Amino acid sequence: MRRIVLSVAASAATLSLAGCGVLNATGDSTSASPAKGNDITVGLLLPETTNTRYEKFDYPIIKSKVSDLTAKQGKVAYANANADSAKQAGQMQKMIDDKVDVILLDAVDSHAIAGEVRKAEDAGIPVIAYDRLAEGPITAYVSFDNELVGEVQGRSLLDALGSNAGTATKIVMMNGSLTDPNAKQFKQGALSELNGKVTIAASYDTTDWKPEIAQANMARAISQLGAGNIAGVYAANDGMAGGVIKALKAAGVTSLPPITGQDAELDAVQRVVAGEQYMSVYKSYPDEAEAAAQMAVSKVQGKDIQFDALTEDKVDSPTTKDIPAKLVQVSALTRKTIKETVIADGIYTVGDICVPKVKAECNAIGLK
Q1: DSSP one-letter string for 298-363
Q2: Helices (DSSP H) in 255-284: which residue ranges?
Q3: In the prediction, which pLDDT does 89 show?
Q4: pTM of the entire structure?
Q5: Torsions phi, psi of 231, nearest 5?
């Protein structure tokens, strides 16, 4: 649940957010007495490596931004849990034992990690939930608006179906992991667009977001429904979209139905160019990662006005209310918007995207 004011530019499928107002502050970033100087350690716990964004974008961007904000004196202690919640709990305990100054936590299991969040609080270490809202006494939260991500996916799928959309139209939903609170919100957002307009003929929750599980579930859906009866597929992220496409091709489908995704992974962008995947949701990882680094440093250094200005929204978790938050905008990535999203932001170059296998398609859409 998010208690924020939302503004949606429907024509461009670009989402913007209006905050609820700055929290009460105790000083400004220049006059506050810092709790710490520049020699700080930020603990960063990321959930897995299947999604390439964590290693390619989140970690290096946060590391660079912390260094910039601390005159190159601050450092990041990094650990990745490889989708193992028990492993992440151990990694977090080590950071607590090592007395890092603040922890950025992207939880594998938002409920299971609550005990470690409480231990960090007892040790005087603030925990900022990153990308996924963990339970326990979280100090702040930075992410994207997840229900709106799902809305963009659902709306894009309906756009792709066009006049073919109707209550007799059957689609398959390939949702994310039940241990990730974002997955539930993506699903809710998508259903708010899809319910009553198409028929959800099959729906799956995908353990640990694994593409191979999505592929197996899609094969099951094809067996039950018949490949020719599936008009579209809601895939919650790009990795699973890839699994869905493999299952459809294995079933002999040559004209793929519209398939959604999320994260704008390079393989997915190339699939969008090739016409195999209809869209992805582009989320500006630099914006999210840099905001997280700024929040962590300002919190440790006692720069209250700066911290409050970064966290103008409020969210509730199952255990904690009124968590200060920053929610970053997202947009739909289609063949028409590649230039204005991932290329404009420097995520990929045309050369990265337009490899030989999609060179002709790149030329066809003016991506040169």
Answers
A1: HHHTT-HHHHHHH--EEE--SS-SSEEEEEE-EEEE-TTTTIIIIITTTSS-HHHH--GGGHHHHH
A2: 266-274
A3: 98
A4: 0.76
A5: -85, -20
